[in-house]
Amino acid sequence: MDMSSAFATINWLSVIAAAISSFLVGGIWYGPLFGKSWMAAFNLTEEDLAKRNMPMVFGGALLLALVASINLEMFLGAEADLSFGVAAGFAAGLGWVAAFLGILYLFEMQSMKAYLINAGYCVVALTVMGLILRAW
C-alpha cells in the first residue's frame, strides 16, 4: 500500500479520539494514581507545576498525541482487528517507548520509580489508543 492509499483509509475520528484518550489516561495516571509519587520522583512542587505555560503544555501534548495516534494508525493498517490493535499498542508502549525511556533514564540517572511511572503511562496510553483505533 502506498502512502496516499494509507492516508485515505485513516478513520480521522478514531485518530482524534485516540489522541484525546491520552489526556484521560494521563489525568488519572498523573492525578489520583501516581501524581504525588511522580512529583516526588522528579523533585517537583505544586509551585513548580503552577509556573508552566498551560496552553503550551496542553497544546503541545495534544499535537504530540495526534502524531502518536496517526503513527499507530499507520502501523496498524486498515486490515487490523481489535485484538491486534490492543496488542500492537501494548507492544509499541512496552517495546519501543518504555525501552527507549529506560535507556534515557539510565544515562540521566533517573530513579526506577520515575521510570516506572512514566513508562507505565506510555504503555497504558498506547494500549488504549490501539483499542480505540480498532474499535471503530
Task: Give a description of the structure.
This protein is mainly alpha-helical and 136 residues long. The protein has one domain (3-135). It has seven helices and no strands. It has helices at residues 3-8, 12-33, 35-41, 46-50, 54-76, 82-108, 112-135. Helix 2 packs across helix 5. The radius of gyration is 16 Å and the shape is globular. The mean pLDDT is 96.
Average pLDDT reading: 96
What is the 3D form?
globular
Largest sheet: none
Query: What is the number of E strands?
Result: 0
**Percentage of residues assigned to helices:** over 70%
Q: In whole angstroms, how far apart are the ends?
A: 21 Å
Regions with little confidence, pLDDT below 50 for 5+ residues: none
| Category by helix and strand content | mainly alpha
Radius of gyration: 16 Å
Number of helices: 7
The run of helices and strands is: HHHHHHH
Quaternary form:
single chain
- How many domains? The number is 1
Strand percent estimate: under 5%
Distinctive features:
136 residues; mainly alpha; 7 helices; 84% helix; globular
Question: Short description, anyone?
Answer:
With about 140 residues, the protein is mostly helical. The chain has helices at about 5-10, 10-35, 35-40, 45-50, 55-75, 80-110, 110-135.
List the helices and strands and how they pair.
Elements: H1 3-8, H2 12-33, H3 35-41, H4 46-50, H5 54-76, H6 82-108, H7 112-135
Helix pairs in contact: 2-5, 2-7, 5-7, 6-7
